[in-house]
Amino acid sequence: MDDPATLPLLPTASRADARAAAMRKPSAPTLARLGWRLMASAAGLFATLVGLWLWSSWETTRHDLEQRSELTATLLAVNAETTFLRIQDDLQQLGDTLQNRGALHDPVGMFIVLDAFKSSHPELGGATVFSPDGQMLASTASRQARSLPNVLQEPAYAGYHDDFNLALATQGLSVGRPQYGLLLKQWFIPLRYAVRGADGQVRFVVQTSMLLERQQALWRGLPTQPGVAMGLLRTDGWLISRYPDQPSHVSIYGQPAKGALVRALRSAGDARRGIYAGKTADGEQREGAWARLRDFPMVAFLSYTHDEVMQMWWADVRTPLLALGGMLALLITAYTLLLRSFVRRMVRIRRQMDFVRAEELPSSGVAEIDALLRQLVRSREHMRRFARNREKTLLEAAQAGTYTRSLRDGVLVAADSSFARMLQRPVRRLIGREWDELFNTVDEVPVGEAIGDAKTQKRGGRRLVWTRGLHGETIWLSLAEHAETTAQGHKVIHGLAIDVSERENLLRAVERQSQRLQTLWELATGSSVEDPGAEAGDAISYMLAQGRDALDMQAAIICLRLGDECHMLYVQDLHGRFRQGQTLSANHPLCACDDHENGALWIADTSLHPNLAATAGVRSVTVCPWCRRTKPWVACCSWAMSPRARNSIQPTGSTPSCWPPGSPACCTTATSATPCWRRLIPMA
């Protein structure tokens, strides 16, 4: 019976390729990893919901703050408008008094009226009268009329020019931007009222002032949070009042404002109120609201710093957020503990699955998993029983036997009945025998593989051994072994034996017949040297026929390589398919030789090619007389030359010429024998 280990197998992927393919193959996640993915998804969903809640809370906080800011700014606007309307009425009454009494032409009477106004309005900074050209006519701050300045001409009052001209063009009270009074020696808000005659022309201008500190006294008393800013802004961009003030008033009152409030007013159109956000006059990021004064070109505003808004929002969400974060941390901790406990239980169950029955498995804590594990254990038990039965069936079908021997001394310690039947001995006669007493080893390699090259074709774990049967016949066994260490620490070798006696005996018979054919071939070629001519060829043909019959071959052919062609020197064919003197093309199956150089000879076995009778490429050629009188392996140069070189010497269609070996025109000599020739027919 043939050894299955020596039968041709299809190419399979290497172990590294299989491992790489297994690594590339996607694997299902573990239950723990799946749980973590679920937890991560839940945490992501939780974070998304919390983020949405935080964003909604932020928008709600800002919306509530904007509403409160608009309401507060409206109240500030109403308060400022009431104050300015009262002052407007007082200044109008003062102007009517001065005009009715003709005090403009009576400096003494003018001072008396102004002093009376100052006494009745202690919250204001006195009173002053100007002519339309800017000349100060009288003031409660100075009684020297000759030393009073002209605010439109004096360089010291350059800041008054725009506001004074604005008062001349304004119907009613004109609120000027804060100035530092040279006479009062402190900051004030100039309030001017242009007194007009019946023709509408300005007769004189009455001015009073409100000290900046006094105007902001009401704001200081409001219960506001730290960081809140409020004030009044003229619609042309000049800041009238702001609380709290900057250390340097010039930085905010000395030039028009260009912050977020001014931009909001420009884009609001005729809106009575609105909100704004951005960098303000103090350089901070603020969010606030504004409201217009109905009778004056001013707005009242109230703003919070962005940090203050963030603190308000954080105060609202801090407690719920910390509670949600604590709950999430508690859930993650509880899940981690449960997962670790579950993993430990599953590891313990996995270790016990190979040793206990399905009913004895501990619980994993999940009913579905318990049912699946019990079914798995039952399936594995069934597979083990099936594997044992299958192994026994396979061994019986393959007529294979098993054995066990110790590695240290090679004593056979176990064997089955099949192994004993192969050796034609009972099992009890084999147990305890040493391995070397029973078998002889052939170079650790089966003879069937050793024919090619016994030194280089070793295969790990397979051996070919032989022994004698009861009747003296040779018994060949092919062995496959592997080493193992038992639980007691003993090193043993388990083996599988297959009887390959028929194959090995046949291979050795073929080998002997091949050696006989080679010997006959060598004798034939040697006799042709001593007896040249046709008799040598007849002897070779006779010996080749004997070798063909001995090897049970359909045909045996001795071929010679000549350039790109293959020449049949001697032919022995039972069916007459081939003739001596034929030439085959280079792609013909019989021309397959390891060496393709000129002068190569080999024996072709046509039994391997049953359909060669219909193969194209076989044609007859003229055999030169010189080649008939020379050694069989020496070719004429006309055969060895390429077709192009042959045509350059000899016209096409003419009879081929022949030159002896060694001549200048010949390219093949007897010394050009190749390794293919030397392997089959050794040269002397």
Strand content: 15-25%
End-to-end distance: 42 Å
Radius of gyration over C-alpha positions, nearest whole angstrom = 61 Å
Shape descriptor: elongated
* Proportion in helices: 40-55%
Description:
42% of the residues lie in helices and 20% in strands. Strands 1, 2, 3, 4, 5 and 6 form a six-stranded antiparallel β-sheet that branches. It has a six-stranded antiparallel β-sheet with strand order 13-12-17-16-15-14. The radius of gyration is 61 Å and the shape is elongated. Helix 2 (31-101) packs antiparallel against helix 3 (107-120) and helix 14 (501-530) runs antiparallel to helix 15 (534-550). It is built from 19 helices and 22 strands. With 684 residues, it is an alpha+beta fold. Keywords: Membrane, Transmembrane, Transmembrane helix. The chain crosses the membrane at residues 34-55, 321-343.
Keywords:
alpha+beta; Beta-Lactamase; six-stranded antiparallel β-sheet; 42% helix; disordered N terminus
Can you summarize this structure?
With 684 residues, the protein is an alpha+beta fold. The chain has four domains: 58-83 and 221-307, Beta-Lactamase; 88-215, PAS domain (Beta-Lactamase); 400-451 and 459-499, Beta-Lactamase (2-Layer Sandwich); 509-680, no CATH class. Helices cover 42% and strands 20% of the residues.
